[in-house]
Amino acid sequence: MKRSEYKEIIQCFETQQCDGTTESLAEVNKVFPTVSHNTLISIYSQYVQLKTKKNYSVYSSPYKAQKYYAQYKQRSADSSNTQGMILVQFANELDLSPALLARVIVERYLFHLSGGEAPVSKNRLTKMLRDPCLIMDPALSLEVQQCSLVDSSYGPVVDSIKHSIGEELEVHLKKTLQDHHLAFLDEDDMRKKGYDKTPDIKLQVPIAVGGRIVNWIESKALFGDDHSHENYMKDQLWSYVNRFGSGLVIYWFGFIEELATSSEQGIIIANDFPKTFSILTPA
């Protein structure tokens, strides 16, 4: 996908007020019929995450958090709110992820529960968000569950889905390598050998793709946009190049074509395992 088309998709999300539902993404798909639905889901999810990260520190500041908690308590005390969805509606008004607003509210809930005398344990907070049944306030427990279920970009449900898709695609990649009779080590094998930062796959015998050598493969179950790729280059991919040589990163839901210049820096970008390659045999 060209960067210009990617920017048009982002603009379409904004002008059509896309909220990540199947219906709203289907409307965007009508404008971009050549882009797969799964690719649109990935682009939208990353777009929301980036936008939220930029604003989350403002929303989660102690002053704002207390203000939102007070508003939640006021709304929940309203007898007309009998079916829940208070936090979901509130998040929509704030243009904030429902799951992240739930996190802010639960953190304030725990803060008041302790009498405001101790900082809230992040471990306890995370456990309650993953299992809202642990929240002793039944109304808030229901609200948090609803936030997790409707949020298409954040929260434990989304995290589980993303993890599952990532695992499935790694299994698919390993099977593809086995079908091609390519010997490799996976992350577990590499860690047993004492490596800390490891790619998903380390080929025991390198292959050549388009005249470039591939020593390792990294599998990414998402769309490769500028922000994600830049972070992966900094946090993971450069260290793989320095340690193992040149390699391949697969963005299974596509990528911005202009990022392919990374191949000049020792990293090939693709959206699938190459159809054609040659095995490099020792001299």
What keywords describe this structure?
6-stranded mixed β-sheet, alpha/beta, 283 residues, 11 helices
Topology:
Elements (H helix, E strand, L loop, with lengths): L2 H13 L6 H10 L5 H23 L2 H16 L8 H9 L3 H16 L8 H9 L7 H13 L5 H24 L4 E3 H6 L8 E9 L2 E9 L5 H19 L2 E5 L15 E4 L7 E2 L4
Parallel strand pairs: 3-4, 4-5
Antiparallel strand pairs: 1-2, 2-3, 2-6
Descriptive report:
The protein is an alpha/beta fold. It is 56% helix and 11% strand. The chain contains eleven helices and six strands. Strands 1, 2, 3, 4, 5 and 6 form a six-stranded mixed β-sheet that branches. A hairpin with a 2-residue loop joins strand 2 (201-209) and strand 3. Helix 4 crosses helix 6 (98-113) and helix 6 (98-113) crosses helix 7. It is globular.
Care to give the gist of this entry?
It contains eleven helices and six strands. It has 283 residues and is an alpha/beta fold.
Shape: globular
Q: Report the portion of residues in β strands.
A: 5-15%
Terminus-to-terminus distance:
39 Å
**Rg value:** 22 Å
- Helix fraction bin: 55-70%
Weakly predicted, low-confidence segments? none
**Total strand segments:** 6
pLDDT average, as an integer? 89
Quaternary structure state of the chains depicted? single chain
SSE succession: HHHHHHHHHEHEEHEEE
Q: What's the number of helices?
A: 11
* Secondary-structure-derived class: alpha/beta
Biggest beta sheet summary: 6 strands, mixed
